[in-house]
Specification:
With about 500 residues, the protein is of the alpha+beta class. The strands form five sheets. The chain has a seven-stranded mixed sheet, sandwiched between helices. β15 and β16 form a beta hairpin. Bound molecules: phenylalanine. Phenylalanine binds next to β16 and β17.
Length: about 500
């Protein structure tokens, strides 16, 4: 057993006060109200905190019990103010000569006369050919009075409440409600009751060290308050970036760290750059209205003739690339149509067109648009993480390693690739990441085809990829609904971890 004097020293002021109060009647189990009153506290949290501290030190035991209380609900409240409906009906009925249903309907409003008849019948009043009659008026009056008294007597403990009345009012909407109440009480342990009250002197305790305190000599005699870092406390709320923004920042850091430069471009583009340049045939289903948002303004964006001629010859016959092309017709009008980019590959390809010779590593994290019906995993507006590496000797192995490195840095070391198809890459890959034991597809990748690179005068192999940002966000944040990212649910946002 610890020395008693020592114990008192380890207590904080609130604990001392509570213990001292309890020692006045050592055998008693103290309720929260009693503690508040004898300690002269208003705040429950102080009492609960002190109780916890004393319990930790083995000086008191805390007993928590949950009991149910029967309280008045909204309609019960009204019934007390205006009288129970059956009470008012009864007053009317017993003082009216030849009470009939018609007279009742004249004297009461519809919303009362309707349910009223039912209430009267249940009280034993009969309605025969439109006229009310009853045998035992006293019993009716007694029952109504008992009901009224029951309501007036609320709140009561559930266990003390009259069973029949309880059942009766439970069947009426919002007359009563049952509330669970946690009651706390504390009693002294054997050790607690041996503490001498006079050892429990409250001292000025210091919980913050200030320059003033240090300059003065007073700290020498002061008592310092200990902090219990394991106690629950309010979470400080401060401004922070939206999780999507933080995630984008993190992705940027990773690519910058891997030697990439960032590309930021417009999302209004031409079908020519978005698709023709990427050797996507003009009759490709993805071009149709259900996938692409074509613009009314600008409906068309002028493109250089020679550029369109090159695409045209590539598409129709493969140009000088050795490919046979897609055959069929090529429309320059289609090329010049304005649209919202459907992928960020439209930007990397233009970057390559401007810089065909210089080896590069470029990435972009930006918004793309597709006509998708909104659901748990789809949005019409989302983001892609796009990147290219152009370098002499760049090869598939390098592409896979780069993607694996990226995901490993994001915290997903298990990555696999599977064969896929895109009109602009060969070979083409699908990237999958293992998450909670399942493989999830996060994007596409590949090496740009000669039909894409040769007309632009690109000198080296180009490794390219485009991955979904929202999909990745779902993994990072553990979401099962993509919409959560954009609905500005403040409570959810506050509880998000720092990414
Ligand atoms: N653009 C493709 C998409 O939107 C992804 C991709 C990018 C595939 C680059 C291969 C190369 O899904």
């Amino acid at each position: 057993m610890p020395r008693i004097g020592m114990v008192a020293e380890t207590l904080v002021n609130t604990e001392r006060r509570m213990l001292k109060a309890m020692l006045v009647n050592p055998g008693h189990a103290w309720t929260l109200d009693e503690i508040l009153a004898s300690c002269d506290w208003q705040d429950q949290a102080i009492a609960v905190g002190a109780g916890l501290g004393l319990a930790d030190k083995g000086l008191v035991t805390a007993i928590e019990s949950v009991s149910t209380e029967v309280r008045l609900a909204a309609n019960g409240q009204t019934a007390i103010q205006t009288g129970l409906l059956e009470g008012r009906l009864w007053d009317w009925l017993s003082s009216t000569e030849h009470p009939t249903i018609n007279k009742l309907q004249d004297s009461f409003e519809k919303h009362e006369s309707g349910p009223g008849v039912g209430l009267l019948k249940k009280l034993g009043i009969t309605l025969d050919s439109g006229t009310f009659s009853f045998d035992n008026g006293d019993a009716v009056a007694d029952e109504i009075e008992a009901r009224q008294n029951f309501l007036v007597g609320l709140p009561v403990k559930f266990t003390d409440a009259d069973k029949t009345m309880l059942d009766h009012f439970k069947s009426r909407r919002e007359f009563i409600e049952l509330i669970d109440i946690t009651q706390r009480s504390w009693s002294l342990t054997e050790t607690g009751s041996t503490i001498a009250p006079k050892s429990l002197v409250e001292t000025t305790s210091i919980n913050e060290i200030t320059p003033e305190l240090l300059q003065s000599e007073s700290w020498k005699d002061a008592e310092f308050r200990r902090f219990d870092v394991s106690l629950e406390s309010a979470t400080p709320r401060s401004g922070k970036s939206h999780p999507m923004q933080s995630l984008i920042e993190r992705i940027r850091h990773i690519f910058l760290e891997m030697g990439f430069s960032e590309l930021v471009e417009d999302y209004v583009q031409t079908a020519g750059w978005n698709m023709d340049a990427l050797f996507i045939p003009q009759d490709h289903p993805a071009r149709e209205m259900q996938d692409t948002f074509y613009l009314d303004n600008p409906k068309s964006i002028e493109l250089p003739e020679d550029l369109m001629n090159t695409w045209s010859s590539i598409h129709q016959s493969g140009g000088d690339t050795g490919s046979t092309g897609w055959g069929g017709d090529f429309s320059k009008e289609i090329s010049q149509r304005g649209l919202l980019r459907t992928h960020t590959t439209v930007n990397t390809i233009q970057y390559l067109a401007r810089n065909p010779e210089q080896a590069c590593r470029v990435f972009t994290v930006d918004r793309v648009f597709r006509k998708e019906a909104i659901d748990r995993t789809h949005l019409p507006e989302f983001h892609q993480i796009e990147g290219i590496i152009m370098e002499e000797g760049a090869n598939l192995q390098m592409l896979v390693t780069t993607l694996k490195t990226f995901y490993a840095k994001m915290g997903y070391p298990e990555v696999r690739v599977r064969p896929a198809y895109f009109p602009y890459t060969e070979p083409s890959l699908e990237i999958e990441v293992k998450w909670r034991g399942k493989w999830l597809e996060l994007g596409g990748a590949g090496i740009f085809r000669p039909e894409v690179t040769e007309p632009l005068g690109i000198k080296h192999p180009v490794l390219a990829w485009g991955m979904g940002l929202e999909r990745l966000a779902m993994l990072v944040l553990g979401l099962d609904d993509i919409r959560q990212l954009y609905i500005s649910d403040l409570e959810w946002l506050r509880n998000q971890p720092l990414i």
